[in-house]
Amino acid sequence: MEIAQRIDAEKGREKLQQELLQSQKMEVVGRLAGGIAHDFNNILVAISGYAEFLMKTMPDGAPAKDDLNEIVRETERGALLTRQLSTVARNQPLQLKVLSVNTAAEDACKMLKRLIGVNMHLQTNLEPALDSVKCDQGQISQVIMNLVINARDAMPDGGKIIIETANEEVTASPEGMPLPPPPGHYVTLKVTDTGTGMPSETAAHIFEPFFTTKPEGKGTGLGLSTVYGIVHQVHGGIGLETAPGKGTAFKIYLPRTLERA
Ligand SMILES: Nc1ncnc2c1ncn2[C@@H]1O[C@H](COP(=O)(O)OP(=O)(O)OP(=O)(O)O)[C@@H](O)[C@H]1O
Ligand SMILES: [Mg+2]
């Protein structure tokens, strides 16, 4: 074998090894999670229901109202986490539908405005003639929520988050992306923040299950591995631009469909 060929083969093997490791980790998470996610979600629904009920019985300006609001917000975080676990565990049947990423982004924004702080500006820049995708609506909103919540967490002193959509054609599979999209037509969803950014040592690990730089109790490290799993499943792609102090941009490529809703 030529040396160049041998190096190629070696690289291929390394890549396979890494993929295998990733899928083994995912399987462990899946088995762990599948059983508890559903029951746990029911508990969260009850907690937030009681908290909202209590909130209604209180006069405006009552100091406990803020605390109750926090309880509701935290249960929303918990609910997102259980959805994440169910996705990783793949115990939710996929409902593939022809849908608009713009609508998904607008819907997610409404919910996210409540979750992000007042010192943060959430802006959308949506392509009006956007092609459709054939995906599971719940999964698309999970992708958006994860990216936006990560952006929020990267901006402790506030900043700007931009959500953009576009039609894009990929001709040659691009190099250096965390998940390069195969050549084809795509709807892209880009989430940009003006936060801390990441050094390349960190960026190299962010899609691994349980990789987190957040303090205990703040992050589980499942967000981006969920995003990766979802996008991989639909044969899409992920691009990443980041540098310390320069903010971060994630770009998700979802294959377009010419089917009509
Ligand atoms: N927009 C971003 N800016 C800076 N760092 C980021 C950004 N998005 C992700 N990261 C880094 O990637 C890590 C992994 O992200 P991921 O969403 O998988 O887990 P997490 O946010 O830590 O926890 P979880 O999403 O499960 O609550 C984060 O801990 C953070 O270090
Ligand atoms: Mg996250």
Describe the structure.
Strands 1, 2, 3, 4, 5, 6 and 7 form a seven-stranded mixed beta sheet that branches. This protein is of the alpha+beta class and 261 residues long. The mean pLDDT is 87. The longest helix has 54 residues, at 3-56. The N and C termini lie far apart (52 Å). It is globular, with a radius of gyration of 20 Å. The chain folds into two domains: 3-89, Orthogonal Bundle (Helix Hairpins), CATH 1.10.287; 96-257, Heat Shock Protein 90 (2-Layer Sandwich). It has helices at 3-56, 63-89, 101-115, 137-153, 200-203, 223-233; strands at residues 96-99, 120-125, 132-136, 159-170, 184-193, 237-242, 248-257. A hairpin with a 5-residue loop joins strand 6 and strand 7. Magnesium ion binds next to helix 4.
Order of helices and strands: HHEHEEHEEHHEE
Rg of Cα set: 20 Å
Structural class: alpha+beta
Q: What is the straight-line distance between the termini? A: 52 Å
- Unreliable stretches (pLDDT < 50, length at least 5) are none
Instruction: Write the CATH homologous superfamily of the largest domain.
Output: Histidine kinase-like ATPase, C-terminal domain
Architecture per CATH nomenclature, i.e. the level-2 architecture of the largest domain: 2-Layer Sandwich
What is the overall pLDDT average? 87
- CATH topology-level fold name of the largest domain: Heat Shock Protein 90
List the helices and strands and how they pair.
Blueprint lengths: L2 H54 L6 H27 L6 E4 L1 H15 L4 E6 L6 E5 H17 L5 E12 L13 E10 L6 H4 L19 H11 L3 E6 L5 E10 L4
Helix pairs in contact: 1-2, 2-6, 3-4, 4-6
The structure holds adenosine-5'-triphosphate and magnesium ion.
Adenosine-5'-triphosphate binds next to helix 4 and helix 6.
